[in-house]
């Protein structure tokens, strides 16, 4: 048995009550909020990897880590600008990082 608030007077009422004992307002079962279970948004490792292949850091942004994605984009672009090999290595690390791990 759980307590809910009466929509009319705001007092706590049993969720099995048909009427509020304080004001008499009818309590319908539709007014009782069902228990909502929020799950973390799902992401696909494949999509994250392809996004980071096309745009370095986009996979991290897709997973929800915008700041991390922007840092990867910055470092990979700098790596490609200065030398091709460090840029390529950073890009590959970025791709694998986007495809693995948790949401953040």
Write the layout of secondary structure elements.
Blueprint: E1 3-5, E2 12-14, H1 45-54, H2 58-63, H3 66-82, H4 84-99
Antiparallel strand pairs: 1-2
Helix pairs in contact: 1-4, 3-4
Strand runs, count: 2
Q: Describe the biggest sheet?
A: 2 strands, antiparallel
What letter string, H or E per element, gives the SSE order? EEHHHH
Residue-averaged pLDDT = 81
How large is the radius of gyration?
A: 26 Å
Tally of alpha and pi helices: 4
Helicity range? 40-55%
Distance N to C terminus: 37 Å
Q: In terms of structural class, how would the helical and strand content be classed?
A: mainly alpha
Task: Outline the structure in words.
- 47% of the residues lie in helices and 6% in strands.
- The chain has helices at 45-54, 58-63, 66-82, 84-99; strands at residues 3-5, 12-14.
- The chain has a two-stranded antiparallel sheet.
- Helix 1 (45-54) packs antiparallel against helix 4 (84-99) and helix 3 (66-82) runs antiparallel to helix 4 (84-99).
- The two termini are 37 Å apart.
């Amino acid at each position: 048995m759980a307590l809910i608030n009466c929509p009319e007077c705001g007092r706590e009422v049993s969720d099995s009550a048909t009427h509020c004992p304080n004001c008499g307002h009818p309590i319908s079962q539709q007014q009782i909020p069902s228990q909502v279970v929020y799950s973390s948004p799902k992401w696909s490792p494949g999509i994250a990897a392809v996004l980071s292949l096309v745009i370095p850091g986009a996979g991290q942004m897709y997973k929800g880590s915008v700041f991390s994605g922007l840092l990867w984009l910055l470092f990979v672009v700098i790596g490609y600008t200065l030398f091709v090999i460090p840029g390529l290595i950073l890009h590959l690390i970025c791709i694998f990082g986007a495809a693995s791990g948790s949401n953040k």
